[in-house]
Every structure is written in C-alpha cells, then in structure tokens.
C-alpha cells in the first residue's frame, strides 16, 4: 500500500509540478542565446509550428543556416520526417514504393512536386483532397501549403532550407487536419455575459507525437485576449535562483544530514552523484527541493540531456507561453513561481521525508521494469490528451488518485495515507480552489474579454476540481472535442 502511494506521488508531480521545468528551461534558453539564427519574417509563424513537429533538426538553424539552398540530403531528412508524421496519423492503409530524383539547387517548384509525389505514394482511409490529374502546384496552392506571397520565394527560385521547412510544416498541418488526426487536448469553454474562458489541460512534459494540435484549440487561443497560466516560467528565470536559495537550501548552518535519517541521506548523495551533483551541493538542498529536482529523472532516465530539455520545451504550457510572447498576447499568472515554491516548502517534515525517500528509491531502483512502467504511464496519458479522451483519463488515472476506497491497511500505511492526504490537499485541492476563484473573477468582470487558461490537466479532473467548483458556482462548462 505504501509503495502504491509513493508511485502516485511521482505521477501527480509529473503532471502538476511547474518550477522544476522552468529551471531546465533557463538552462536551455541560455544555450540557445549563444547564436541567433536569421529567420525571415514571413516564415517565422510556420517555423515556430514546425519546430514542434520534429520533422527537421533544430540544429539546422545554428549549424547550417536556413537561408542556404536545401541539399538533396537535407530534403531527404524532411521527407523522412513527413513520412513518419503520416504514418503516425494511423490513417495510412497502404504505401507504394517511389523513386525520387533529387538534385542540387532544386527550385521551389521541384520541392513542391517532390512532396506531392511523396503524399500521393500513400493511401489513406480518408480523402485528403488529391484530384486525379491535378498538378502539384495546383494542389499546394488550393490547400494553402504554398502561396508565393508575403516574401515567400517564387516557383522558379532555388528553394532554401527555410522555404522547404515551411512547406513541409504546412503540409503536415493540412493533412492532420483533414484526417482529423491532430491532438484534441482537454479543452472546455465557459461563457458568462460577454466574457469567455477557455480551459485547456496541460501536460508539462510532452513529445513530438502530440503535435499538430487541433485547429479548434489553436483558434480558441488565437481568439483569446489573454493567456493565463499557473506560473510564467519563461519570464521567471531571473527569480528562480533567488527563490531557490531562499526556500530550497539550508542557510542556517545545518545540512540535509541533520534533518533526515542517515540511510536517506546516503541515498540522496548516491542519487545526486548519478545526476552529476557533488555531495556538497546535495547536502545543502532541502528534502522538498531534492524531490522536485529529481522526480522527473525516473521517467526521463533513458533520454539524453537534449531529449529531456526537448520534452520540457514541448510541454503544452510552454508552447502557448512561447506563442503568447511571440504574438504579443498578455500573460496572467494564476499562482506564480514564488507561490508554488512556498507551497512546496510548506510540506510537513514527515511529508518531505516521504517524498524524498520515494524519489530516491525510484532513481536508485535497479529493477528496470519500474522505470518502464512510469514511462508507459506518461505515454498513456499523452495518448488520452491527443484523443481528447477525458473519460478514459478519469477511469484510468483519477480514481487511483482519489483513493476513496481502501482495504484494511497497517499503521505504517495509515501514516503514509495521512501524508498523501496532506500532499493532495496542498498540491491539488487548495490550488484548485484558488485558481477557480480567479477564473470566477474573470467571468464576472466588466467588459468583453476572452481568456485562455492553461494549467495542469489534473486540476480540471481531480476530485472536486476547478471545473467542479465552477459548476457549483452556476456556470455551464462544455467540453470542446
């Protein structure tokens, strides 16, 4: 029973913890700023989208230069990326072998015809709009994949990497939309007077597989006046170090060794060493901070550092925060980084020790099956998000988190259960109440404003969630699929 509770704590943290991803983002952005690529204004919006598809390597920006002519080798990389996305639609019924003749300095028209030949080589279970005898350029023009306007190259121009990536991105977006294969997400809508609130459940770490996102979700964001998030992690980098030094480290002359049993301390040192941290650093960290800093390691254990940072940057809240800053959309924090860190540091000593031990045991566990299970749990949750399947998420995840029906348990398990209740109260319940109150204020506000609210998915479907609270206040909440 105790092991089950500890496993649940790890799953909850992966869905609701924010500040630890912000720390990683700070590291990632500092590296990215070393070299700024030159991107054409007309291509920027599409490339922001394409970066999330995984159809071309991001290093092309920095190591190659995207304004150079695309080479046959690079074009084959793009074609491989498109093929993979097509297969992942689960709508491909057959694929025919086709030989391609690629050459140096291909024109935009050459690239359009190559991509057109590629998609025609696949058979789908739905119509994607290809008409027999239709020319590639005509298909690409009627679908908006190629416009030739607003700075784009003309058909006779030598195609650049930038132009090819834009065409590939639009092609994938179009096909996913017509095949109804884009991620639906967990999206709800509330209307009150002239105010509208869209509620989108986030997953803070994600993969390329959940992109593209449905046009319904993207339209809701575009139509919104304001983006609301738990914490603005992209604008909090300067605060992270100060807040962590204030709340996450011992500054009174004591160390971790003075606050936890020797066995747990040694586990912390060993786990820290596995992550590249010295004993001197780990010893100064408080239990809650070690728990948060290390908790995602068990899921990301098979990833490289770049893959791990990519999974964070593909998180839903990060995606919309980035889009908001690039489009000039205002951002409102429902909580803020300092609130979240204070909340975590308010855990009782007993709960912090339990969380710490559970995380350390997970990292140091030699049984690889436990690591695989955690990874599979996250994949399953991402699939539910992709399908917009709230019901399956509720049936699979939420009941285990509520833990309303329990068998007879031992005294040790009873103690662990009480600590789980404290964790759930502070980490979920009280936060749900606070965020629901702010959303209620948005809906009651004067004027006409549309809000796009992105918070962890469990905040919308936990026991007496944000949505439950808003319904009790008399609002009609409708899911958009």
TrEMBL record:
Residues 1-26 form the signal peptide. Keywords: Signal. Pfam families: TraB_PrgY_gumN. The keyword Cytoplasm does not apply. InterPro entries: TraB/PrgY/GumN_fam, YbaP-like. PANTHER family: CYTOPLASMIC PROTEIN (PTHR40590:SF1), CYTOPLASMIC PROTEIN-RELATED (PTHR40590). This is TraB/GumN family protein. It comes from Herbinix hemicellulosilytica. The lineage of its organism: Bacteria, Bacillati, Bacillota, Clostridia, Lachnospirales.
């Amino acid at each position: 029973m105790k092991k089950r509770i500890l496993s649940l704590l790890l799953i909850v943290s992966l869905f609701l913890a924010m500040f630890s991803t912000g720390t990683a983002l700070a590291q990632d952005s500092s590296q990215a700023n070393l070299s700024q690529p030159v991107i054409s204004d007309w291509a920027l919006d599409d490339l922001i989208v394409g970066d999330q598809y995984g159809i071309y390597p991001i290093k092309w920006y920095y190591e190659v230069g995207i304004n150079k002519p695309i080479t046959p080798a690079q074009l084959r990389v793009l074609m491989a990326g498109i093929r993979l996305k097509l297969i992942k639609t689960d709508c491909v019924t057959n694929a025919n072998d086709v030989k391609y003749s690629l050459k140096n300095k291909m024109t935009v028209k050459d690239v359009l015809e190559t991509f057109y030949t590629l998609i025609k080589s696949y058979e789908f279970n739905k119509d994607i709009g290809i008409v027999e005898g239709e020319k590639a350029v005509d298909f690409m023009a009627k679908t908006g994949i190629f416009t030739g306007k607003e700075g784009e190259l003309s058909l006779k121009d030598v195609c650049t990497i930038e132009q090819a990536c834009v065409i590939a991105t639009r092609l994938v977006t179009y096909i996913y939309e017509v095949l109804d294969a884009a991620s639906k997400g967990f999206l709800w809508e509330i209307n009150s007077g002239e105010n509208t609130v869209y509620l989108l459940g986030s997953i803070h770490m994600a993969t390329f597989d959940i992109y593209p996102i449905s046009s319904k979700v993207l339209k809701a964001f575009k139509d919104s006046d304001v983006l609301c998030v738990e914490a603005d992690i992209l604008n909090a980098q300067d605060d992270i170090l100060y807040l962590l030094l204030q709340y996450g480290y011992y500054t009174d002359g004591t160390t971790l060794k003075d606050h936890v049993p020797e066995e747990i301390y040694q586990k912390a040192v060993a786990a820290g060493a596995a992550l590249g941290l010295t004993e001197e650093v780990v010893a100064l960290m408080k239990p809650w901070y070690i728990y948060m800093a290390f908790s995602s390691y068990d899921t990301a254990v098979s990833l490289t550092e770049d893959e791990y940072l990519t999974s964070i940057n593909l998180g839903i809240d990060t995606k919309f925060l980035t889009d908001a800053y690039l489009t000039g959309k205002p951002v409102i924090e429902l909580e803020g980084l300092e609130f979240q860190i204070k909340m975590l540091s308010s855990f009782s000593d007993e709960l912090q020790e339990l969380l710490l031990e559970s995380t350390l045991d997970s990292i140091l566990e030699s049984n690889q099956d436990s690591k695989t299970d955690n990874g599979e749990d996250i994949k399953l949750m991402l699939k539910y998000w992709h399908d917009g399947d709230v019901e399956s998420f509720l049936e699979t995840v939420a009941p285990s988190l509520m833990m309303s029906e329990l068998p007879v348990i031992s005294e040790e398990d009873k103690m662990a259960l009480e600590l789980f209740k404290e964790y759930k109260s502070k980490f979920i319940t009280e936060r749900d109440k606070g965020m629901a109150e702010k959303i209620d204020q948005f809906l009651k506000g004067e004027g006409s404003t549309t809000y796009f609210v992105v918070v962890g998915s469990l905040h919308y479907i936990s026991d007496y969630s944000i949505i439950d609270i808003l319904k009790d206040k008399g609002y009609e909440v409708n899911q958009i699929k």
